[in-house]
Write a structure and sequence with these properties.
InterPro entries: Adenyl_kin_sub, Adenylat/UMP-CMP_kin, Adenylat_kinase_CS, Adenylate_kinase_lid-dom, ADK_active_lid_dom_sf, P-loop_NTPase
CATH superfamily: P-loop containing nucleotide triphosphate hydrolases
Keywords: ATP-binding, Cytoplasm, Kinase, Nucleotide biosynthesis, Nucleotide-binding, Transferase
Function: Catalyzes the reversible transfer of the terminal phosphate group between ATP and AMP. Plays an important role in cellular energy homeostasis and in adenine nucleotide metabolism.
Strand order of the largest sheet: 2-3-1-4-8
Subunit structure: Monomer.
Structural class: alpha/beta
Number of helices: 9
EC number: 2.7.4.3
CATH architecture: 3-Layer(aba) Sandwich
Largest sheet: 5 strands, parallel
Shape: globular
Length: about 220
């Protein structure tokens, strides 16, 4: 299957993408991984992206699209892929459609993870990171440390990243609503959108997603 995964920040896209890709035996292609791989490998697109990023500018759509196209052309993506973080706007979605048409392919589904805005804020703003080891992550509600402000693993100080503050999270949501959310209507017009509630345990959400994707696949046949 060829799938685009969408949803607001804090919806659990990265977690679900990993599980879904494994269950479907297709590669998980994330924008972050694309950028890191191209920059570390010193590809021409990576050099272009790094130049924009170093200057504090947004990477143009054509560079991101070029990276995504190169990745989708790899042998392991021959039978499908799951795109996470791309496309981010309607112009990228149109470019993706054109790229797939040129390769005589099409998307099978656009999986929309639906989470109430207040829950998104609660999920992200409640995160606390260990200063000694950033791999140690806690949450004031869902996985609170035994001692407030202290890492259970190494005793390091727990803190809230600036990006996780409620004000920043709400700004990120505004960007999502303005730039990314319109692609849902774009794909809904093509009959591709499958929306599932993304609240609950990870495995419960994964099962909902797998069931919804199977239904979409059967309906398309």
């Amino acid at each position: 299957m060829r799938i685009v995964l969408v949803g607001p920040p804090g919806a659990g896209k990265g977690t679900q993408a990993a599980f879904l890709a494994k269950n479907l035996s297709i590669p998980h292609i994330s924008t972050g991984d694309l950028f890191r791989a191209n920059i570390s490998q010193g590809t021409e697109l990576g050099k272009q992206a790094k130049a924009y990023m170093d200057a504090g500018n947004l990477v143009p759509d054509e560079v991101t699209i070029g990276m995504a196209k190169d990745r989708m052309d790899q042998p392991d993506a021959e039978n499908g892929f799951l795109l996470d973080g791309f496309p981010r706007n309607v112009s990228q979605a149109e470019a993706l459609d054109e790229t797939l048409r040129d390769a005589s392919m099409r998307l099978d589904a656009v999986l929309d993870l639906e989470v109430p805005e207040d829950e998104v804020v609660k999920r992200i703003a409640g995160r606390r990171i260990c200063r000694k080891d950033s791999a140690h992550v806690f949450h004031v509600t869902y996985s609170a440390p035994k001692k407030d402000g202290v890492c259970d693993v190494c005793g390091g100080e727990l803190y809230q990243r600036e990006d996780d503050s409620e004000e920043t999270v709400r700004k990120r949501l505004e960007v999502y609503h303005t730039q990314t959310e319109p692609i849902i209507d774009y794909y809904r017009a093509q009959g591709l959108v499958v929306t599932i509630p993304a609240l609950g345990k990870v495995d419960e959400v994964t099962k909902r997603a797998m069931d919804a994707l199977q239904t979409a696949k059967t309906a398309a046949q």
